[in-house]
Amino acid sequence: MSKPRERILNTSMILFHQQGYNSTGINQIIEEADVSKASFYQHFKSKDDLCIEFFNKRFKYWVSELENFTSGAKTLEEKFLKSFDFLIYMNQKEDFRGCSFLNIMSEIPVDKIEIHKIIRDHKATLRDSFHKDLKNDILAAHLYLLFESCILTSQLYRSNELIEKSKLIVQNLLQSSLSH
Amino acid sequence: MSKPRERILNTSMILFHQQGYNSTGINQIIEEADVSKASFYQHFKSKDDLCIEFFNKRFKYWVSELENFTSGAKTLEEKFLKSFDFLIYMNQKEDFRGCSFLNIMSEIPVDKIEIHKIIRDHKATLRDSFHKDLKNDILAAHLYLLFESCILTSQLYRSNELIEKSKLIVQNLLQSSLSH
Amino acid sequence: MSKPRERILNTSMILFHQQGYNSTGINQIIEEADVSKASFYQHFKSKDDLCIEFFNKRFKYWVSELENFTSGAKTLEEKFLKSFDFLIYMNQKEDFRGCSFLNIMSEIPVDKIEIHKIIRDHKATLRDSFHKDLKNDILAAHLYLLFESCILTSQLYRSNELIEKSKLIVQNLLQSSLSH
Amino acid sequence: MSKPRERILNTSMILFHQQGYNSTGINQIIEEADVSKASFYQHFKSKDDLCIEFFNKRFKYWVSELENFTSGAKTLEEKFLKSFDFLIYMNQKEDFRGCSFLNIMSEIPVDKIEIHKIIRDHKATLRDSFHKDLKNDILAAHLYLLFESCILTSQLYRSNELIEKSKLIVQNLLQSSLSH
DNA sequence: TATGAATGAGCTTTCATTCAT
DNA sequence: TATGAATGAAAGCTCATTCAT
Question: How does pLDDT run across B42-59, given as a tens digit for each residue?
Fold first, then answer.
């Protein structure tokens, strides 16, 4: 069995993502991680502290999954289309739970600036990756906006329909952009 | 002074939107509405029940504000651009709190199907309005995705930057669409 | 439709007996009686007041049912045996709810002396009827004790077994008593 | 001072028995046990859970008191008579509060099957003890019925009169039974 | 007479956190 | 390092009753 700290973090990976932050109590976490309460507070200053570590781990995990999924792509266009397929793959895997960062952003009071900062930072990193791939600033923003919207709306409607439509849109955008 | 039911609903309009659902307790609502606890439960079966009434009122309010804001538009293009300006207006007015429907969707457990249904229904109504204005199905979905994404990302980054970029994008899309 | 007061009383006849006193709220009573809350308090000073009226009505009802059931008896022995059969009949009719007087006695605080008095009074009336029929004081007490015990234990075990056994016992007691 | 769990249980031994279940709030229990509310719920899943533990403790206590009281008896007859004297002793000690099991049975909704089961089980254990002592099945049931009735009616009338009469009855029954 | 609106006091339960060992 | 015990504060909700109309 792995170490307590790791078990707590792994448990939060499941619970925070599936149930959200406020709906997941410390008690449930320590029970499912099989760790004592005092042990929890030995490793994490507070629940908010765990939340931050959770975000870091979740981001690493999500990015590496995405990179894995798109690694075979030979062209930029193919890579982007695959990244939208990745959303479909994740929706199926995680039952349309959407994005942990956006979900938790919504339920955390605005005065918890540290948590909101880390959410923003990770999301900005994602956006940056679009801008790195596409030198055209407007086009990068355009695709990023569609990407975020696909995560959101597929969670909302519990359907991949808009992701499929977005793939057509993206295809069009990239082809007309290359033709210039 | 207005009637208790109205005061409760009005208070929820402020608190649910600004603080979210879980962070807003019954106690705070009744205190700020200046109503007794039993009186609250005379008018609303439960907190979830109030949430549903809140959604209905919020949707009516938001739509009427939007229609007001865009009413002067003479062309479809102008109307859409104004609807993005409306998001900027609301961000300023409501301090980048984004969309109550999406915010609360994120923090409500999935098994509260009645609440999730009303969120989906209202959001679907919004999406429908795009499809009514634009016969081109893909184009309507495209603009709708950008619109939702603008609400979301401007809340996330506390900035109207992506809304401004979207206006350029939308302008382009509509002009090339009309030229066909 | 009957008058409000009557409807309230009739509703309490069902609810107090089936659910007990504390588990039956005023709200449920007025709803099922289709009467306004203020109307309730017009007719009854308090819930306790209704309880007393309920006891009076319940007692009258129960006694008249018992007399009906045993009216055909030609001998004293037959009458007593029929009164035990009556308990079986009531258990079937009322799903082993036992005696309202004893049930409610158990859940009313001891300092509500008025309610406890009326319970005692009605129960004493029942006991007196045994003593009127049987001049032998000990024998009357004996049968009365068995009778109460049958009500109680058949509710407890949800079974008429001990009533059946009691009929044999009573038969024996009365026959040996007459032979003296 | 003893441990919280023990203090809670001991307090419930007094309050549940004296006031009943519904009339005894968690607040009163924790105050008289000098324990915090959260501490209560650390040790007991719910009030119903405490009720079950209370029943187990009460039953052990009651049986051991009964055995103590009757331990000196040299004949079966003496033992039974002493067990009726025990009821008088308990009435005086506990101010005619009767039987906790029957009292609480009356005020608990029928759908709480777990609680009703434990009541029935303990009561069946008591009844079994009569059948173990007296091989004659009818006689055992007879004495058991009288015994339960004595507990009940002495609470109802706040008097030991019927217990005293029962002692005469029991004496007679046992002597005529032995003479056969 | 009849009523819908309103209430204070109470209920059981859960929360994230700390402390003594 | 690790832990079981304990907590103050707050959660959502229900009670029998009264009052203004």
Answer: 999 999 999 999 999 999
